[in-house]
């Protein structure tokens, strides 16, 4: 048992899917996994382990934002021996050509978070995806005629911006979308020499002001989960 996860060692698989929303974790477990068992409900942050096509896999809610995500990633890596961490989350589009429910795979993650400032003084660290996981996901998408976008995303500490046009500067430099966790995930994975990938479904567009509902974000987005599960060894 770790501080925030009540599982025993061995209860969690080496590959863990990481939705921010614990209700999405529940939906993923009940929809995609065979015989899922609940190993955590501390603070309502649900975690399950089951099997997908005979391969053992876990799914763990992480909450919103880099600090919350890093708590769970740290414990999964250091207390439970997790080797592959795959974020499955929602994002807001920054580009006209990226529409609601499009899939974005984060090759790298920019951030307005100060998470790395204390580590890299007067320098910028560029957190990136694991190449092996990225290629598996991209190959699955190609073989199943799933149109994905891949590139740089923004991990923001701010959900409600004071300046509603602030996104345009990031968009100008090719950033595809905004979310709240990937830069932290990629950084901690690099620090501990484990693999990480972030697969995102566009739930909102800052360009068109289109939105999906909270219920849709919690219990749809099947394609993203299928891509994530395709990376299992």
Principal-axis shape equals: globular
- How many angstroms does the end-to-end distance come to? 26 Å
**Name given to the CATH homologous superfamily:** Nucleoside phosphorylase domain
What ranges have pLDDT less than 50 throughout 5 or more consecutive residues? none
Q: Number of helix segments? A: 7
CATH architecture annotation name:
3-Layer(aba) Sandwich
- Rounded to an integer in angstroms, the radius of gyration calculated over CA atoms is 17 Å
Q: In what order do the strands lie side by side in the largest sheet?
A: 5-8-7-6-9
Fill in the CATH topology: Rossmann fold
CATH top-level class:
Alpha Beta
Number of strands: 9
Largest beta sheet, briefly?
5 strands, mixed, barrel
Number of domains: 1
The class by helix and strand makeup works out as alpha/beta
Q: SSE order, as H and E?
A: EHEEEHEEHEHEHEHH
Helical amount: 25-40%
- The overall average pLDDT, rounded, is 94
Q: What share of the residues does DSSP label as strand, in percent?
A: 25-35%
Task: Describe what this molecule looks like in 3D.
Helices cover 30% and strands 27% of the residues. The mean pLDDT is 94. The chain is built from 7 helices and 9 strands; from the N terminus they run E-H-E-E-E-H-E-E-H-E-H-E-H-E-H-H. It has 233 residues and is an alpha/beta fold. It has helices at 22-32, 66-80, 131-143, 167-172, 182-191, 214-219, 222-229, and strands at 15-18, 34-40, 47-52, 55-60, 84-93, 103-111, 148-155, 177-179, 195-205. The protein has a 5-stranded mixed beta barrel with strand order 5-8-7-6-9.
